[in-house]
Amino acid sequence: MPAPDFDAIIIGAGMSGMYQLIRLRQLGLKARVFETGSGVGGTWYWNRYPGARFDSESYSYGFSFDKELLQEWSWSEHFAPQPETERYLNFVADKYDLRRDIQFNSRVTAAEWDEASLTWTVTLEGGAKHSARFLITAIGALSAPTLPNYPGMESFQGRAFHTAHWPKEPISFAGKRVAVIGTGATGVQTIQEVAKDVGHLTVLQRTPNWCAPLHNRKITPEEQAQIKASYDEIFRRCEETFSCFLHTPDPRATFEVSQAEREEFWEKLYNSPGFGIWVGNFRDMLTDRTANAEMSAFVANKIRQRVKDPKVAEMLIPTNHGFGTRRVPLETRYYEVYNQPNVELVDTRATPITEVTPTGLKTAEREFEFDIIIYATGFDALTGAFDRIDFRGTGGRTLKEAWAGGARSFVGMMVPGFPNMFMLLGPHTALGNIPRSIEYNVDWVSRLLGHMQAAGKQRAEAGEKGTAAWMAHVMDCARGLLSMEVDSWMTGVNRNVAGKQQRVVARYTGSAPAYREWCEEVAADGYREVALA
Ligand code: NA7
């Protein structure tokens, strides 16, 4: 039997694929990364839309595995913009000479397991095939963009972009009539940036989201020195918190304190940088309906104070879900955009978009003319990137078949029936501050591969029993969460995708420490739940 081309194939050269490549090299494994784009960075390569930036503190987001790298790189802002992050990831690629093992402009379309040779064969668009003993998916959790299905979309004569497929050349909005469809985290960042110099902006909003101020600013030289001296502490903090951010729930329950104390706390959170208002709030804010309603009322009043036209303010206040039950977009003068005379907010729930025309689009009541249409319409999240590749495991069974009743995984990283395949950020890994989850996933997979090397094992497959126990834990964690009662990518709903209309337990909602504890027990127990041969 011919030897496979590589020890391991990694799909994707975003942060997961890059770090995994570094770790595989340390194990002495010959690896090849296939990447659709022409550069490294994944999310930070594709999402070059205006205003794209971190909502995690920059210094909590970068790679933590190399102390030298931490000292070499200086973030310029507390929440870095996309161009800087893309530069950072290219800096990392240069430092570790990663590109020699990455094949760019190479989209993986299929991956098939062969039991006789214990190899995966990966097919690229264009037909080239490559084989490896191990297959590692580093394809992202929010990486398969989705568009609406309006009639006439192809007929539009102006320029139209999905935010995740933004062109590399600069786009000018000056004097242009621009539409933004979608008001999630991406739409909000885009809108506040485009509004700065647009001719006229129309925001087409189907569901308003609860947004909160980001409070970004430049990092001063003194802060820079302080940050570089505190990296151990910063990452220790990320390891301890619920979702790996610098913020974590307050131990108090909402009604344990007086109304005055509550207001004061919320005021402080509203005026503090980052995700504290979402993940550093009272511990029952996302589980207790009354507590959540109080918090929502607090934020609704902030919106009313910031938006001059009371009718527009009411349109921007969510009525079908409470604060924090969907991903909270962080903003910088987002609400003030609606005070500009050249900005209009259209409620597409009241008057749905019926078609795109060569010159703009139509709603049930009006016709609009645009030069540019921006689709900030989100992603087929969590499983979408997997659905786009034809994975075939033992007996030729496809991953789609295996997941027909909903995604099933063992600790988010393995799937029974798919031996020697490891998922980084697969369904049911801890999410939160994503690079922290990535580093943990990569380290866990790498340790398992090291264990296999040492034990002379060739084949690893997640067992049914361990998978069932893990999935039961995933389901348990989701019980009682108000977010489970709301449609969003976090509950697996995307109305632009067939088969994604129903809410499911799409992600792991326990804490990152609890996730790691489970995974560590598996490792400490000699990977008993993984069949090694
Ligand atoms: P999201 O959060 O999924 O937001 C997508 C937005 O697009 C949301 O406002 C949708 O409205 C809207 N949308 C989607 N399809 C349509 C159609 N057909 N018509 C009108 N409006 C539509 O994606 P983002 O990119 O903002 O953020 C995803 C994550 O990436 C984010 O949480 C960060 O963690 C990074 P809806 O709410 O469904 O009514």
UniProtKB/TrEMBL annotation:
Keywords for this protein: FAD, Flavoprotein, NADP, Oxidoreductase
The UniProt record lists the keyword DNA-binding: no
Superkingdom as given in the UniProt entry: Bacteria
Pfam families noted in UniProt: FMO-like
The protein, known as: NAD(P)/FAD-dependent oxidoreductase
Native organism: Siccirubricoccus soli
Taxonomic path: Bacteria, Pseudomonadati, Pseudomonadota, Alphaproteobacteria, Acetobacterales
